[in-house]
Write a structure and sequence with these properties.
Layout (H helix, E strand, L loop, with lengths): L1 E7 L6 H30 L10 H7 L3 H5 L3 H18 L17 E5 L3 E4 L2 E4 L2 E4 L10 E8 L5 E8 L9 E7 L3 E5 L4 E3 L3 H15 L2 H29 E7 L3 H4 L5 H7 L1 H14 L3 E5 L29 E3 L6 E3 H15 L11
Parallel strand pairs: 8-11, 11-12
Antiparallel strand pairs: 1-7, 2-6, 3-4, 4-5, 6-7, 8-9, 9-10, 13-14
């Protein structure tokens, strides 16, 4: 598995060098964007065969520009590679990266292992040292990395390292029902509280926005993001370490973000929690499944039927506890849905392993 280890650069004075490099990165990226748009316009004009420039084509077109821009040649290659990945994912040319103005793109400077030299708590790029806070050890198997900038102008260095999937596997099985009043309810009765991080700082954020303090606004947004990630990391690590089967409902956060519940849905960060559970389950060699959660709130987890007494429709969202009219079992709405989600995920067969060659 490839994990990213992120460390903050110490000396603020070196930021001017990284800013200069990031402007050169934007120049190469924008050249690739211009080339892609010319190719798309050429085929729209009636060209017989459609072929977009590949990573190798862009590398050939940018050969020799690294020295003039003050970049490493491998950095230019990484920019072209990332451009092709972004273009293929979006199926059209990405946007240009602005170096100035209100829509300025955040700084980004990619590299590969041979481009930099790592020595203790500093990294050397183009003969210049960048010291960082080494909060945890860095694995030896570094593949690629980059320098990145946040909205407050702080620079970080990231290392993408290959780590072994050898963490101990738990023996439990859990189904997870995602919600807003309670962030997640597990089939074993555990819950993850919805701390509503944005709502907590909403009044302070409004005061800073009305006063026009942009730096204060960015700092508050960063605080909200940090406390949210901290809670999700702790909760997902605990679940991944204790269970060998993790089943989560496939509720669509993108669709609910278009409704009047958008602010609460985005504040809950369901997608971030699912992504954390997925990669952490892989490290613990556990099985992660996203199950269809239709009817899970209405089906009785004891008898498996949809009784007349189960909550149905939007009008019954306020019913949090109900009693099955068929078997008489009493249910908590979210815990019952979590148990049904676990049953649906357990019934799905794991992928078939390859037969070893004799």
């Amino acid at each position: 598995m490839i994990l990213t280890f992120k460390y903050r650069i110490k000396d603020a004075t070196v930021g001017k060098y990284l800013d200069r490099h990031s402007r050169s990165v934007n120049f190469v990226w924008n050249y690739c964007c211009e080339t892609q748009r010319k190719v798309e316009a050429y085929y729209k004009a009636g060209a017989p065969k459609r072929r977009w420039p590949s990573h190798f084509d862009l590398v050939k077109l940018t050969t020799g520009c690294a020295a003039e821009l003050g970049l490493h040649s491998d950095t230019v290659g990484q920019i072209c590679k990332q451009f092709v990945i972004s273009r293929n994912a979006a199926r059209h040319a990405p946007r240009f990266r602005a170096s100035r103005g209100p829509k300025r793109a955040l700084g980004w400077l990619p590299f590969i292992k041979r481009t930099v030299k790592l020595d203790g708590a500093h990294v050397v790029y183009l003969k210049r040292k960048f010291h960082f806070w080494k909060s945890r050890d860095i694995p030896d198997a570094i593949k690629t990395g980059c320098f990145t900038q946040d909205a407050r102008g702080r620079w970080y260095v990231c290392f993408q390292c290959e780590v072994a999937d050898d963490l101990p596997t738990g023996n439990g099985e859990v189904g997870i029902d995602l919600g807003l009043k309670t962030l997640a309810t597990c089939s074993n009765g555990d819950t993850i509280s919805a701390l509503r991080h944005y709502r907590k700082y909403e009044a302070t954020l409004a005061i800073a926005q009305r006063a026009g303090h942009k730096q204060r606004v960015r700092a508050i947004h960063a605080k909200i993001a940090n406390v949210r990630k901290d809670q999700l990391h702790k909760a997902s690590s605990k679940i991944a370490a204790e269970n060998q089967l993790i089943v989560v409902g496939n509720v669509s956060a993108a669709q609910l973000a278009k409704t009047r519940m958008a602010k609460s849905v985005l504040d809950a960060s369901w997608s971030m929690l699912r992504n954390m559970l997925e990669y952490k389950a892989s490290r613990h060699r556990a099985r992660y499944v996203e199950a269809d959660e239709r009817w899970t709130s209405q089906v009785c987890s004891c008898c498996g039927t949809i009784p007349d007494s189960s909550p149905k429709g939007m009008g019954a969202l306020g019913i949090r506890h109900w009693v099955c009219s068929d078997c008489g079992c009493s249910h908590d709405r979210d815990a019952n849905a979590a148990r049904n989600i676990l049953r649906v995920g357990a019934e799905r067969r794991p992928p078939v392993e390859e037969i070893p060659a004799l």
